[in-house]
């Protein structure tokens, strides 16, 4: 099946004729990444071996454009080298990443409907993004209506998504503790964010307007409603409201974001969380120095009737909270009722250093906990709120057209408080007034990635 796709698409384009063929494009992507992990996502313990593997994404992307209609199909194969035998007949690594059609309701294409599986990228992808760093990335089954004003000074999007009940057992690696392996799955899916499954229904509204026609920046507003259905007659809503302004003040760019979250969990526990972000970048220099902070509220361990931790939902979290993915990337850090919502205060500084025709990006993060870090040897005592420091370095270069190379290295200098929130600091059995930290001092991560993006047609 896979071998026959490319010839069929090419033949189809030829048969459409020269005029139609000019509107048909066929491109691809081959992106292998080799990683060495020694303390990635959580501190490594003494005696733990370094993990080494190569993961690759292979995509074939076909688009076709007409005056009133557009279509896009993106199929991908995501695999780790060696996981499939050399004479294997088939595997479950092939999937559809995007498959949607666009219907333009006016001649200029300012008003349009997009229906099908599609990426959703909004603002800086803090709560809704395509997660392109991950080999599999992220896409949604949705109906979207988009309208852009004739002078492009403002834009509005409305998105509706509905996840059908699952009636076929999913592979074990996709199972969620709160969904069954068969029968009706009222939650709408098993690939959850945080420790909740995908919502049964979703409604997103987004509005963006330019300030001084973009000369002074812009501001966006987003409203997200997600319904988690426990039974056919009960839906637990989660509401997220956000504003994202960007201001241009001479050579300084100010970017901010504020979000508030409310509603109830699937277990009818109240939710009240927030996210605050602010950063400033000096764009008058090639180094583009940046300073900023992110504050995500954490769950108060003293309360059991409410979750105060903010859930960043479907954001591209690898982009924000350190590249070693210690926070909000499918892993927890010391929440109360919700084990993944301990909260985070991230103070950071970033810069870009031009190196000939390449560049080196350097980030420095200082992580702190906005909630109490409990001493596992004595729950009445608290540890320091300082969690650690992370350094991220990425060197990248465009080798030739459609071929890019990136090399990265990150190191985490963690404290015993980080070990505690990651469950690596325990009470000493011989003396329960003392703690034992079996993590190593060195926590590092290195990777190299090459990205081929050929244009076939």
TrEMBL record:
Domain Alginate export spans what residues?
A: 25-410
Stored InterPro entries: Alginate_export_dom, Alginate_Permeability_Chnl
The organism's place on the tree of life at top rank: Bacteria
The record, for Gene3D superfamilies, names: 2.40.160.100
Name of the protein in question = Alginate export domain-containing protein
List the source organism: Cytophaga hutchinsonii (strain ATCC 33406 / DSM 1761 / CIP 103989 / NBRC 15051 / NCIMB 9469 / D465)
């Amino acid at each position: 099946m896979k071998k026959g796709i490319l010839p069929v698409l090419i033949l189809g384009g030829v048969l459409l004729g020269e005029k139609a063929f000019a509107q048909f494009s066929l491109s691809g992507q081959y992106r292998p990444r080799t990683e060495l992990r020694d303390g990635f996502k959580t501190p490594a313990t003494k005696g733990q071996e370094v993990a080494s593997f190569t993961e690759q994404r292979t995509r074939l992307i076909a688009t076709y454009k007409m005056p009133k209609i557009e279509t896009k199909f993106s199929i991908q194969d995501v695999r780790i080298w060696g996981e499939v035998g050399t004479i294997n007949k088939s595997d479950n690594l092939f999937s559809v990443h995007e498959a949607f059609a666009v219907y333009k309701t006016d001649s200029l294409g300012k008003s349009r409907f997009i229906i099908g599986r599609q990426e959703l990228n909004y603002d800086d992808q803090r709560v809704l993004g395509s997660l392109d760093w991950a080999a599999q990335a992220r896409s949604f089954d949705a109906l979207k209506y988009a309208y852009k004003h004739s002078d492009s000074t403002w834009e509005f999007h409305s998105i509706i998504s509905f996840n059908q009940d699952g009636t076929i057992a999913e592979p074990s690696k996709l199972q969620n503790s709160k969904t069954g392996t068969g029968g009706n799955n009222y939650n709408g899916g098993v690939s959850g964010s945080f420790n909740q499954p995908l919502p049964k229904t979703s409604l997103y509204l987004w509005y963006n307007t330019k300030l001084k026609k973009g000369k002074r920046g812009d501001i966006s507003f987003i409203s997200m409603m997600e319904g988690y259905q426990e039974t056919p007659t009960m839906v637990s809503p989660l509401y997220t409201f956000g504003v994202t302004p960007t201001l241009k003040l001479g050579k300084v760019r100010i970017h901010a974001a504020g979000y508030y979250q409310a509603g109830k969990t699937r277990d009818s526990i109240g939710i009240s969380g927030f996210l605050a972000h602010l950063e400033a970048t000096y764009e008058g220099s090639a180094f583009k120095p940046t300073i900023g902070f992110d504050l995500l509220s954490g769950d108060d361990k003293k309360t059991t009737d409410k979750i105060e931790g903010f859930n960043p939902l479907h954001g591209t979290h690898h982009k924000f909270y350190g590249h070693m993915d210690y926070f909000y990337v499918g892993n927890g850090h010391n929440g109360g009722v919700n084990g993944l919502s301990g909260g985070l205060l991230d103070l950071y500084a970033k810069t870009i250093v031009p190196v000939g025709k390449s560049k080196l990006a350097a980030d420095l993060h200082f992580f702190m906990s906005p909630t109490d870090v409990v001493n596992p040897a004595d729950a009445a005592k608290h540890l320091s709120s300082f969690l650690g420091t992370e350094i991220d370095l990425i060197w990248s270069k465009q080798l030739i057209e459609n071929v890019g190379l990136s090399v990265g290295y990150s190191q985490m200098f963690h404290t015993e408080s980080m070990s505690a929130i990651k469950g690596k600091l325990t009470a000493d059995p011989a003396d329960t007034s003392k703690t034992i930290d079996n993590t190593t001092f060195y926590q590092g991560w290195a990777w190299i990635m090459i990205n081929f993006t050929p244009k076939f047609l």
